[in-house]
Write a structure and sequence with these properties.
With about 260 residues, the protein is an all-alpha fold. The protein has 2 domains: about 5-20 and about 175-255, Helix-hairpin-Helix base-excision DNA repair enzymes (C-terminal) (Endonuclease Iii, domain 2), CATH 1.10.1670; about 30-130. It has 14 helices and no strands. The structure holds iron/sulfur cluster (SF4).
Amino acid sequence: MSELEIRDALLQRGERLFSAPPALVIFAKHVEADKLLNALDRLPHAFVIGCIMDQQIQAEQAWMIPFRVSELLGSFSIERLAELSHEDIRRLMAGPPRLHFYFDRMSDFFYSAIGRIMEVYSGDASRIWSERPSSAEVVYRFLEFDGVGPKLATMGANILARDFKIPMSDYTSIDISVDRHVRRVFGRLRLCPQDADVLRIIYKARALNPEFPGLLDYPAFELGRELCKERRPLCADCYMRPYCPSAAEYGAVNP
Ligand code: SF4
């Protein structure tokens, strides 16, 4: 199978998600926590802070943090958060229960994010993505937050475009956010060598779909998490099986 056939099969899945009507986006797998993260019209900073917390621990646990803080404070309004000192936030994060394994560093990022949203966006984080900005502008605005690197910044922009249907003037700067699932799937589909570094995988996605490289992100991530598992890939159930150069190898193990 050619690389273009593989790309097209992945893009088909990506485009289905991109054009699907808006629905509650599942982050924490906890109804109330997810409702808070989806409240872009009232509490857009919850999504931004959730993104910033989503590092070095299990994603669901990280996305729970805005909700846990709102429970402890009785509110997640930006005004209430802005009243907290750096030490207040550190205490909330330290617990018990501890909200993040790296609670010290995450408290710094949390505190500084609130300050930035207040100072630069007048307390309204939705200004990060309002008025149909370019994708580069949205990624850049995420990168300006302490603790946010390219992976988180493109993840945030991708979720806004794909799941929240936030209009942007283009999608060219939304790269894939490489994690172990995306890396494994790109390797097994032979889009990149199994040991390719992050930059190589990012550039491969750019080469495959320059108008919106990040459209390949969720299909690859979802495949890796649900089907193309590290030890026992479920090739028999995989929609990529007809195109996948590794299917013969793994399919023989899991017919
Ligand atoms: S066919 Fe098998 S090896 Fe190929 S992507 Fe699907 S699960 Fe992975």
